[in-house]
Specification:
The chain is of the alpha+beta class. It has a domain of about 45 residues. Helix content is about 25%, strand content about 35%. Strands 4-3-2-1-5 form a 5-stranded antiparallel sheet, with helices on one face. The radius of gyration is 22 Å and the shape is elongated.
Length: about 100
């Protein structure tokens, strides 16, 4: 139960310019999505690839890296840093592919 006058329960008047500003804010601050794609040789020697992790790269800072194999979430400086880390561990080529 809300406390206050009946007027308090009404939606505030939202001018058109406000909606445009909010949409712009969301677009300007939204993280970018990318995949870290690991390339490897199959037993028969053919080239194959798989998504090693997904990244949310924030425009003003960190990148969250999610690996679903063990469902781990790590925060690093950039998708490229995450790709280098996975590449060193797996000894395979890892590329950043933007979604």
């Amino acid at each position: 139960m809300a406390i206050g006058s009946p007027q308090d329960d009404k939606e505030p008047v939202r001018p058109e310019w406000f909606d445009r500003e909010v949409e712009s804010l969301v677009k300007d601050t939204a993280p970018r999505l990318c995949a870290l794609v690991e390339e490897f040789a199959t037993e028969s020697g053919h080239l194959d690839a798989g998504v090693a992790a997904w990244c949310l790269a924030h425009p003003d800072g960190p990148t969250q890296v999610v690996r679903d194999r063990w469902f781990t979430v790590t925060e690093l400086g950039s998708p490229e840093e995450a790709a280098q880390l996975i590449s060193r561990r797996s000894r395979n080529t890892v590329r950043v592919i933007w979604a």
